[in-house]
Amino acid sequence: MKAVTFIATWLSYQPGETAGFPKEQADVLIASGKAHPAKAEEEEVETENPTGQTSAEVPERKDLIEGLIHQLDPETDFTQSGKPEVGAINDLLPADTDPVTAEERDLIWQALNA
Questions:
Q1: Cα dihedral sign, 24-25-26-29
Q2: Dist CA 52 CA 87 (whole Å)
Q3: Per-residue pLDDT tens for 26-55?
Q4: Is 63:56 a contact under the CB 8 Å cutoff?
C-alpha cells in the first residue's frame, strides 16, 4: 500500500484527505495530479492490524474498498438489492490483497450509505 494526500477531488476524496491505495493506483493518482505522496515518495504503508480491529475497520483497507466500490458500474456490478457485488470488488483488488467478504462489504456499504 502507498499513502497519498489528495490535492484535487477524486471520487469521494476531498483535497487534504490521505488514503492508502495499491502502489500502482497511487502512482496513477500522483501522475494525474490528483494527489501527492503522503510520505517519502516510495515509502510503503504498513497494513498490519495490531489494534484488533476487524478488516473493515482498518482505515487503509476501508479506504481501498470504498474507492473500488466507487469504480464499479452501477448497471452491472450491483446486486438486485442494490449492494456492490463482492466478486466485482474482488476483481479490482491487487493480487496480493485478501479478498473482500460479504460481511466486510456490508459493513463498508452501510457506512457509505449512513
A1: positive
A2: 26
A3: 888 888 888 888 864 334 444 444 444 455
A4: no
0.70 surpassed by pTM? no
pLDDT tens, position by position, 88-113:
999 998 888 889 888 889 999 998 98
**DSSP letter, residue 84:** B
Q: Domain residue spans in the chain?
A: 2-37, 55-112
With contact defined as beta carbons under 8 Å apart, do 92 and 98 qualify?
no
Rounded CA separation 30/40 (Å): 13
**Amino acid type, 4:** V
Burial (CB count within 10 angstroms: exposed 0-12, middle 13-18, buried 19+), residue 16: exposed
CA angle 104, 99, 19 (to 5 degrees): 70
16 backbone φψ class: left, alpha, beta (φ>0; ψ -120 to 50)? left
Q: How far is CA 25 from the centre of its chain?
A: 10
